[in-house]
Amino acid sequence: MSTADIKKNAEAKMAKSVESLKGELQKIRTGRAHPGILDQVSVEYYGSAVPISQVANVTLLDARTISVQPWEKGMGPKIEKAIRESDLGLNPAAQGDLIRVPMPPLTEERRRDLTKVVRNAGEDAKVAVRNLRRDANEQAKKLLKDKEIGEDDERRSLDDVQKLTDRVIAEIDKIISAKEAEIMAV
User: Fold this and answer.
1) Are 99 and 79 a contacting pair, CB within 8 Å?
2) Ribosome recycling factor domain location, by residue (predicted)?
C-alpha cells in the first residue's frame, strides 16, 4: 500500500460519511412536503415489510401535501395506518384510492429542536471523518515504521490527509448550516 492508496481510501470513506449525513438530514422534515420523507416508512405487503415506494406512487400535490396512490386496491388502509403509526407525526387522510398526507406547520420550539438534531448529526459525521483521518495517519506511520516509505513521504501523506479532512469538515459545516436555514425559514 502506498501513500496515494491511503489518501484515496480515506477520501472514498469520507465521501461516504458525507453521503450518509445527507441521507440522515433528508429524513428530517422542514415543514415543506418532500416525497423522500416517507422512504423510511414500511408497510405490510403479503407478509413482509416493504417501503411505501414499492407499493404506491408517492408524489407532491403542492408545497405542503404529499399524495400516495396505492397500486392495489386493498393497500390504501394499510399504507394510511403505516404512515399514521410512523414516528413522523403525520396524519394521512384517504380520499377514495388516493391518500393525502398534509405536512403540519412547524412551531418555533419544534424548529429549534430540529436544528439541535441537525447539529448532532453533523457532529457525528465530523467524528466519523476525524476517525478516518486517524486511521489513515496510522497507516502512513506503519508504512514508515516498516521502512516502506521515507519520513518526507510520511509527512506529505499526513499533510494531504489533514487537508482532505479540513475540506470535508468544511463541506459538512456548509450542509448543516444550509439545513438549519431551511428548517428556520417560515
Assistant:
1) yes
2) 21-184
Contact 38, 54 (CB under 8 A): no
* β-sheet bridge partners, residue 93: 100
Whole-prediction pTM value?
A: 0.69
- Residues near 16 by Cβ (< 8 Å), separated by ≥ 6? none
**Assigned fold of 3-27+107-184:** Topoisomerase I; Chain A, domain 4 (1.10.132)
In three-state secondary structure terms, 101 is strand
Kindly state the average pLDDT of the residues 15-31: 83
Handedness of CA 17, 23, 29, 32 (dihedral sign): positive
CA distance 61 to 140: 53
Residue spans of the domains in the chain: they are 3-27+107-184, 35-102
pLDDT in tens, 123-173: 999 999 999 999 999 998 998 888 888 888 889 999 999 999 999 999 999
Closest CA to 124 of 25, 52, 6, 4: 25
Determine which helix (DSSP H) or strand (DSSP E) holds 109, and give its type and residue range.
helix 108-145
Q: Domain 35-102 belongs to what topology?
A: Gyrase A; domain 2 (3.30.1360)
